[in-house]
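Review form for a predicted model. The reviewer records the input and the model, then writes brief findings.
Reviewer: anonymous (R2)
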Amino acid sequence: MTGNAAGRWALGRSAAGRCAGALAIVLALACLLALPRIASADSAKPVLKARDVFDLQWVADPQISPDGRSIAYVRMSMDIKTDRQRGVIWLVGVDGNHARPLSSADNSSHPRWSPDGGRIAYFGSKSDGSKQLFMYWAQSAVTASISDFLESPSSLAWSPDGRWLAFTMPVPAEHKPLKVDIPEAPKGAKWADPPKLIDRMVFRMDGEGYLPNSFSQLFVVGADGGAPRQLTHGDFDTRGAPEFTADGKGVLIAANRRADADFEPIDSEIYRVDLADDSLHALTDRRGPDHDPAVSPDGKHIAYLGFDDRRLGYQATQLYVMDSDGTHSHSLTASLDRDAASPRWTRDGKQLIFQYNDRGSGKLASVDLQGKVRILAADLGGSDITRPYTGGTFSLAAGGRFAYTRAVPTAPPALATGNSSRDIVTLAALSDPLLRERSLGRVEETAFKSSADARTLQGWIIKPPNFDPAKKYPLLLEIHGGPFASYGPSFAAELQLYAAAGYVVLYLNPRGSTGYGEEFADLIHHDYPDKDYDDLMSGVDEVVGRGYVDRDRLFVTGGSGGGVLTAWIVGHTDRFRAAVVVKPVINWASFVLTADMTNYFYRYWFDDFPWDNSQAYWKRSPLAYVGNVHTPTMLMTGEVDYRTPSSEAEQFYQALKLRKIDTALVRVPNASHDISMRPSLLIDKVAYVLAWLHAHDSAAP
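Model under review:
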């Protein structure tokens, strides 16, 4: 432990002296209903408010037409009546004109242009709520459903001649569970619901709940509709999007069809499915994931993504090219040392366009067949508008024009297009009308050296609106999850709301973060948490040293992997006045055996099973250090979180209660690991975090 534990505990208790425990949160929440209040009297614009979340809009999945003249994209928004995210496909010219919705459907997604540009296939919701396949005819602007599936289709690909569509859809497993002979209930009787019989290793998935006994299979259907034809069979999942061969006689898929698939969870191969007889032909064969096939225009080569599995916590995904029969495979990005994603061939077949994340920023790049990389855009951004995670999507027209989701720190992703880095223009910045009328926190990059090994690390600071460098502000350290993920200079509603409430918000990419190379990410391989704690504390020291942070008003929060590190921090230092631990792992042994991906976590994050090396699990568990905690700590968990089950947060809460540490547990009904998926839950999360910090801040009004 570092710092004055007794003094920090006394400060935390005196700060909440107006009301203790749960009562403090109730009163603080009432006080915070009027937040944010920090805009100065002469400020022309108010700061971002919690209810503004419902007015945010952003761009997702932009798809440029083959001739490069129009772009279909998904216009995302928050529906205040249903409290859900809503996506509707819009069309716009590349000159920014003639913007209009593609249809009047309540929800639509996944637009994909036909090869001749005359039609757009997409997924939409019918009146009965089912997800179906729709078609839009560009010339007549007519749209219609062309399917009536009993299950929800996913992914989508056109055949080269425009006659067929390939997609995936769940099909009941061929293997039947144990047959149990149970008598029927008498007429009118109300017996209990029958038990669930589970015999699969992965039997539930976060965000989906308990999985049906089914597998994702490949289908094709005529572009005018009709009966779908199932191409793959067996109790194996088809992964990702299908891709037709250049001659249209086959479809490429990725799948793990190994007998030991449950024990090799990341493994997959590229298969060609011949339409003539539904036969499968494996084109790759190695330990490791091979996926996302892309066929060259002449049909002679296949680009794909993957890596040789070395059972490391993080392994960089490379972009490969092989001959169409699977021979002569080689990597084009071996020297890039970044995760390649979404390969697309240029029309001449001499280059591939792909994306990757580098030091917090999304890059759109081209690579030739000799491996020479050239940047096309450096501000590709993701669609997570709550926190500043990296990501984003793009598409490519035949002539080389691209469309992509553009990230800026002050607004959710916009639609941008260009032919090169020199002529990029923004076509649709959907939240500008709202955000032009709000004073946002300024985002600035910072760099500092870690006390662990003097590595230079990267982070960002969000200063409160109307920032006054002569004042002293409270600091909130917000830690990303993953842990193999990264933050960047993107808009984050949650963090902007913290800044609007008067906090200097610090977010960092400590060791283990992606976008800095494989060696940097694997510094935490079988060593997490550990020196990433030193990285975070060094970042705090850097910002405190700038003079505008009150060193006695430091706070910390984080979710998932960030929740792990927040719980670790309060077990190793008393310098923070209060902490909020969101959806954490507290005990690695219980986590590995109750999370939705047991077969992955034990294999890649540890050396052995928990019963064979219990000490390795325990020494990395925040619960092992709960006896050191004096910081007032609130826990927050989703009640149907299957990624970091709620029992993890409950263990830390009960341990803190037994130790008489100021604590509270917030359980979010019907929430999965994506605890802020619904707009109101994002607002709730921010309100509870601010209430807890406010209740333990002696200088708060």
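Findings: The first strand starts at residue 57 and ends at 64.
Further findings: The radius of gyration is 26 Å.
Recommendation: see findings above.
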